[in-house]
Automatic annotation (TrEMBL):
Residue ranges constituting the Cell envelope-related transcriptional attenuator domain according to the UniProt record: 85-244
Name of the protein in question: Cell envelope-related transcriptional attenuator domain-containing protein
Annotated signal sequence range: none
Similarity remark: Belongs to the LytR/CpsA/Psr (LCP) family.
Keywords: Membrane, Transmembrane, Transmembrane helix
Organism encoding this protein: Faecalitalea cylindroides ATCC 27803
Length: 328
């Protein structure tokens, strides 16, 4: 593990959104490819054959019951300004097992992304921060697609077909769907922001303070994004539980509230999609501990920013576990 250095300049909030919580409402039940902006970017996932693989001497088939959705929080208040993907969560809906898994992806992951110049001429692929992939798009929709392609390439070419991106301005609206929310604080990373936000304390989040809880990190502290991702995980678990309660008590009104938020996102979700998935949500299992995954690897100090080098052996094992079934 690399030791701390002093490459950071100022304490500041960095923009990290918990777009993943919208997996409660966003899911297409078909595996359709969409968004044809240019031939070179026409498919979200790569052309490599992921259907059949061999791992540790055994043969595996891709689990076609998996629906994958990538959620991105963009560090901008203007959807037309191409920011960076500051928070990324890949949600897997397993229709066979009726379960949900979430893979949290750090913006600091070093991986291949698709590059373009200012005139959007193709510059090929290069190893850079995963969060930068979105910025190379010429529109929010294309930026989301480029990020999905990079995530697919990172995960050994499994398809990442569906995506939804939200910018900073949507966060209070998202919180207002559930109103006040009780969340257990997982670490002490925000005690300077609010001295009551200590590890283990139960805090009440609302539209006024949710941004601080899920976005803030100390950029003078190396690898502070790790603490922030822990807070995001705690928030997601609480939000999931609250939405389930709301759907049970008033299904139609809750679906409409969620759809109103979706209309402000870069996504292809329809009201019918939300209704279908909301019905599934009530029966699908999700445990915020056992079903929430972060990638193994090593934090390093880069020349300008933190970097995260993924443990490829552990990643391949995780991909096989979540996306594949052993051949009979």
């Amino acid at each position: 593990m690399a030791m701390n250095t002093t490459t950071k300049k100022n304490k500041a909030k960095t923009l990290g959104l918990i777009a993943v919580i919208l997996f409660l409402i966003l899911a297409l039940m078909s595996m359709l490819l969409f968004f044809n902006e240019r031939p070179s970017n026409e498919d979200v996932s790569s052309a490599s054959d992921y259907h059949h693989i061999e791992y540790n001497g055994k043969k595996y088939d891709y689990n076609s019951s998996i629906v994958s959705i990538l959620f991105m929080g963009i560090d901008s208040t203007d959807p037309e300004q191409m920011g960076q993907a500051d928070a990324m969560q890949l949600v897997l809906l397993n229709r066979e097992e009726e379960s949900i898994q979430v893979i949290a992806l750090s913006r600091d992951i070093m991986t291949d992304i698709h590059l373009f110049d200012v005139e959007h001429n193709d510059l090929g692929w290069d190893k850079q921060h995963l969060g930068l992939a979105y910025a190379y798009g010429d529109s929010p929709k294309n930026g989301a697609m480029l990020t999905s392609q990079a995530v697919s390439k990172l995960l050994y070419d499994v398809p990442v077909v569906h995506f939804a991106a939200m910018d900073l301005s949507i966060l209070p609206e998202l919180q207002n769907v559930v109103g006040e929310l009780q969340v257990t604080v997982p670490n002490d990373s925000l005690v300077e922001v609010d001295p009551t936000w200590t590890k283990g304390s139960v805090v009440t989040l609302n539209a006024d303070n949710v941004e601080s809880f899920v976005r803030t990190r100390d950029t003078e502290q190396d690898f502070s994004n790790t603490d922030r991702m822990e807070r995001q995980k705690a928030y997601i678990g609480a939000y999931v539980q609250k939405i389930k309660e709301m759907l049970t008590n008033d299904f139609d009104n809750t679906v409409q509230l969620l759809y109103n938020v979706c209309k402000d996102m870069t996504t292809n979700i329809t009201l019918d999609d939300i209704q279908s998935f909301s019905s599934m949500l009530l029966s699908y299992s999700y445990d915020s501990n056992s079903d929430f995954y972060t990638l193994q690897g090593e934090n390093k100090i880069g020349e300008l920013h933190d970097e995260f080098e993924v443990d490829q052996e552990a990643l391949q094992q995780l991909v096989v576990e979540l996306f594949y079934e052993e051949e009979n």
